[in-house]
Design a protein that fits this description.
This protein has a 5-stranded mixed beta sheet. It starts with a helix and ends in a 13-residue tail after the last helix. The protein has 6 helices and 5 strands; from the N terminus they run αβααβαβββαα. With about 200 residues, it is an alpha+beta fold. α5 packs antiparallel against α6. It is flat, with a radius of gyration of 18 Å. The chain has one domain: Beta Polymerase, domain 2 (2-Layer Sandwich). The structure holds ligand 0O2.
Length: about 200
């Protein structure tokens, strides 16, 4: 777990550096907040069991991608892609998997950009490659996901179709909020020409 903690420190620093740089260039903070967490031992055990793997160090490293997780909450949808691309352009970051639940939301309405990356951590006598799961989302996406997590996700309650539709409708409202706020941002703070180099994925 100490190695995963080191990997979280590395990735968190990368995001803080990017936020610092972009806030100078854009005159606003593209990252609202960053939260990191290590998967609890009981959740590690349960997930391996669910996939049918015995609890071994090798299986934890090879079969689980989310032992170390970071959630990056951005201001606007375009910030999510700008920050993700800037991270993935770094030469010590290897993309293992990307799932774009913003372009393709889950049936529940869940939206976020998920990346699994591998980065090196440098110890006294060795270099280890570590996997980290990153969830990037906007404030509106985070608001929906946090509330849905409390009332529905993995909860042992028989949700009716009507209740699920209501949650999906709330997700649509949060997507509309993102869209409208982004439109306003573009009017008030158009991206400076010097930022043309920042391509959207
Ligand atoms: P928790 O409680 O947040 O830790 P894998 O993780 O690779 O085995 P999969 O299907 O590839 O499985 O993962 P997925 O669905 O791409 O992403 C998993 C994580 O995304 C979840 O972690 C949640 O944090 C978040 N997530 C996915 N779907 C939903 C959703 O419908 N609602 C909410 N609120 N969050 C979601 P955990 O470990 O499942 O849960």
């Amino acid at each position: 777990m100490a190695y995963y903690r080191c990997a979280l420190m590395e990735v968190e620093t990368k995001f803080k550096v990017l936020n610092e740089e972009f806030s100078l260039r854009l005159d606003r903070n593209p990252i609202e907040n960053i939260k990191s967490r290590l998967k609890r031992p009981i959740s590690i055990r349960n997930k391996l069991k669910k996939y049918g793997y015995p609890l071994t160090m090798q299986n934890i490293e090879e079969q689980l991608h989310d032992v170390a997780g970071i959630r990056v909450v951005c201001s606007f949808p375009s910030d999510v892609y700008t920050i993700a691309e800037a991270l993935l352009n770094q030469d010590d970051v290897t993309l293992i998997r990307m799932k774009d639940y913003i372009k393709n939301p889950k049936p529940s309405g869940y939206r976020s950009l998920h990346l699994i990356i591998e980065i090196p951590i440098f110890l006294a006598k060795e270099k280890r490659m570590m996997k980290v799961e990153i969830q990037l989302r906007t404030i509106a996406m985070d608001c929906w996901a946090s509330l849905e997590h409390q009332i529905h996700y993995k909860k042992d309650f028989n949700f009716t179709d009507e209740m699920a539709s209501e949650l999906a409708l709330c997700a649509d409202l949060s997507a509309e909020l993102d869209e409208r706020m982004e439109k306003l941002r573009k009017i008030v703070r158009p991206v400076p020409e010097t930022d043309d180099a920042i391509k959207i994925i």
